[in-house]
Design a protein that fits this description.
With 652 residues, the chain is an alpha+beta fold. Among the domains are: 64 residues, Calcium-transporting ATPase, cytoplasmic transduction domain A (Distorted Sandwich), CATH 2.70.150; 126 residues, Calcium-transporting ATPase, cytoplasmic domain N (3-Layer(aba) Sandwich). 54% of the residues lie in helices and 18% in strands.
Length: 652
Amino acid sequence: MNLVRTWLSGRWTVPGASGLLILASFASEHALGYPLWGDVLMIAAAVVAGAPVVSKAWRALTARVVGIDLLVSVAVIGAVLIQNYWEAAAVTFLFAVGHALETATLNRTRSALAELIAVAPDTAVVLRAGGQVEVPAQEVVTGETVLVKNGAKVPVDGVVIGGTGALDEASITGESIPVEKVAGDDVFAGTVSTGGFLQVRATGVGADTTLARIIHRVEEAQDARAKTQAFMDRFSAWYTPAIIVLAVVLGLVTRDLVLALTLLVIACPGALVISIPVSIVAGIGRGAKDGILIKGGEFLETSARIDAVALDKTGTLTQGRPRLTDVVPLVPELSEDDVLRLAARAEAGSEHPLARPVLDAAAERGMPSPGLPEETHPVPGQGVVAVVDGRRVAVGNLALLTAEGGLAEGGLAEVERTGARVAALAADGRTPMIVAVDGRPVGIVAVADTVRADASEMVRRLHAAGVRKVVMLTGDVEPVARSVGAQVGIDEVRAGLLPEDKLEAVADLQKQGYTVAMVGDGVNDAPALATADIGVAMGAAGTGVAIETADIALMKDDLLKLPQAFSLARRTVSTMRQNIAIALVTVATLMLGVVLGGVTMAIGMLVHEASVLLVIVNAMRLLRRREDPPARTRRHESEQDRTAPEREKVAA
């Protein structure tokens, strides 16, 4: 019984019943010799398939909308009145089959949203009153401890507070390689454990999870209208009444009612109307699967026109975490380790922002944790001076060396040599700090915010994707910015910028005729992000605000997602144009066929439905994943983006 109900309410019920009646009509007339019953069954086939169409056309008319269904309804009713029963049945049957196929394929284009909803967990195992309790996922309370076992879905957003494991985060970031998780790491609802056991403190539940925000954003984006789609809607609103008027005029002039009714059928702009939304739905769905959230059709179209990309340096092109890169002894009696040890002792009691990379490097080289110096004297803008084992150790710039009496022993020549080494390191994008003992320079330590390994490849792919200019906008000093720009292959570097300067830089690019995308952290870059044609937030999985406000949100902190997003936008817009061309050529060809003769209502409807399906199938090509180069295995971004030579240099 349930199977019967399912079939009766299915999308194939109407075309199936109509098709059986058509076959019965042919059998009655040609095999059994009952032409009257043949006509009755043919009319019944037309009524079964045509009733939903007429009903929809009537509802549209009451809402003052003249659509495709009205054209088909008028043509079918006219065909019945002139006793052209086969044409009426064939048109409605083909229209019903086409509608069922459209529904099936359109549902396929929305598969990304269905898959996102499917990964949402239903239950959670929480610790309550010292025991494990299974509860609905939405009933977990923020702050509770949730247990995630091997093979289970993570039911909440949270932070790992115990255990280790690996999670498949493809549903959130599009990354196919499981990510290892340890205490302190963030986890997201909908990800799946592939091994281990995790204790997670819930920080986001129900509608407050990253997965819920993604689903909400994709729902809105797939329903949002692009500018081209809005134009097509306005065009159809005028086109359909114009076709009805044209058919009436043609019928009156030629006195050929069949010709007029045929024109109504073949002029249906179905493929034209569906060409834009089906492409947008497929494109946004593909992006969602790859961890690229695009806010809507309008932003998809704009992204396809991007020809200039402005990038922040710190945290985007670079790690955003300075590391020790060089240790240079200036006197023969001290080794690199000796110089680093002195610098670490002096920096141990310092709040200097570059103290941490020095201390971390000393720890990585196996040096014992330095004790606090006897005295510590920060010198704003210059460095730090400390008393270590009774000796005065200074770590800072040339101004600090001079203040410490660096001219006393070595004289001007030694200071000039030191200055030359400092200048060379600065030209390479490093921040050098002189280490002086009792006023004498004994070494140099240099730190740098290291360039991310994928940065240069990202710039190359942006250019390959049609971006003409890649610009770095940074508040850093000119030498460091120039060095990073040269390593990465940036086309233009603008350094020493305040947030309002970045806004002016984006506006200047727009005045030059560029369509600009700005990539930043959404805080100090907020003015520039708002001014740009497209604002892009990277690593948005842990930032709910970025998901809601950015025009494009890249869920994973992966630079290569940026050119992938623009390539997807260009492919989508290209598909939209192809679909429009298919629709227009089909209608023009059919109209020519009607004028020259030979195109009947049934043939016209068959070609019309074929064009609709061709448009949908063409859009569905967007759902295919384009394979990226093999991903590198890694645990965290900090380890991923540090190249092997850099790791060896730090550890040496």
